[in-house]
Amino acid sequence: MTKIELLPSILASSFAQLGSDVHAAIEGGGTALHVDVMDGHFVPNLTVGPPLVASLRKVVNVPLDCHLMIEDPDLFIPAFADAGANWISVHQEACANLDRTLHLISQHGCKPGVVVNPATPVELLTEVLDLVHHVLVMSVNPGFGGQKFIPNSLNKIAALARMRAERKLDFRIEVDGGIDLTTVADVVKAGAELLVVGTGVFGHGDIRTSAAKLLEAARNATLTRA
C-alpha cells in the first residue's frame, strides 16, 4: 500500500514558538516539515530563507521539504542545501532550464522536486518526470496560506498518477493548499501521498490532535481507492 505522509507547513505555525509547534506536529504524525520560501517577486509574499532552515535543522530530525517560490532558484539552491534542506522543489514556471535546475539540486545532495501552479498543465512536466523525487501540485494559487482548495487539482493528481503508472516511474505526488478534513479523502483517492497541511494542523486547536486526525482520515481514504 502506498505510504501516506503528512507534511506540516510551518507557514501556518506560530513563529514565536516554532520549535514547540513543529515538535507537536511531528508527534501527531508529521514525517517531514514543509518550508514555504517566497521572495515577494515570483509570488506576492515574503517569508523565510536559509537561516530559518538552519535553525530548524538543529531541533528536528525529519526531512525538511523546501518549496522555493522564487525567481532564479539556481542562485539559492546551494544555500538551502548547506542550511540542511533535504528536499528542494522549484516551480516549472520559474525555471529557464528546468532540467539543469533539477540536476543542480541533486548535485547538492538534495532530492529534487518540481511544482506546478493551478493553471499549469502537468503534461508540461513529461520530460523531467524521470528526474524528480516528487511532483508538487499546487491546489491553491501560491503566496498565502488558508486558501480554498481548487477542485480541478484532483484531475491533475489523477493525471500524474496515470503518467507514473504508464511509464513505470517512482516519483511521489505531493499536494499543497486547502487540505483539511473535508478535502483530504478526495486528494488521497486521486493519487496523492505527500500531503502538505498548514492551517489544518496549526490553526485548529491542539496541534498533535489536528495532525493525527488528518493523517487518520487520509489513511482511511486509501482503503477506498479505486
Describe it.
There is one protein chain. By secondary structure, the chain is an alpha/beta fold. The chain has a single domain (5-222), classed as Aldolase class I (TIM Barrel, Alpha-Beta Barrel). Helices cover 35% and strands 18% of the residues. It is built from 8 helices and 8 strands. It has helices at residues 18-27, 50-59, 77-83, 98-107, 153-167, 184-190, 199-202, 207-222, and strands at residues 5-8, 33-38, 64-69, 87-91, 111-116, 134-138, 172-176, 194-197. The protein has an 8-stranded parallel sheet with strand order 1-8-7-6-5-4-3-2. Strand 6, helix 5 and strand 7 (172-176) form a beta-alpha-beta unit. The longest helix has 16 residues, at 207-222. The chain is globular, with a radius of gyration of 16 Å. The two termini are 13 Å apart.
Question: Mind sketching the topology for me?
Answer:
Blueprint: E1 5-8, H1 18-27, E2 33-38, H2 50-59, E3 64-69, H3 77-83, E4 87-91, H4 98-107, E5 111-116, E6 134-138, H5 153-167, E7 172-176, H6 184-190, E8 194-197, H7 199-202, H8 207-222
Parallel strand pairs: 1-8, 2-3, 3-4, 4-5, 5-6, 6-7, 7-8
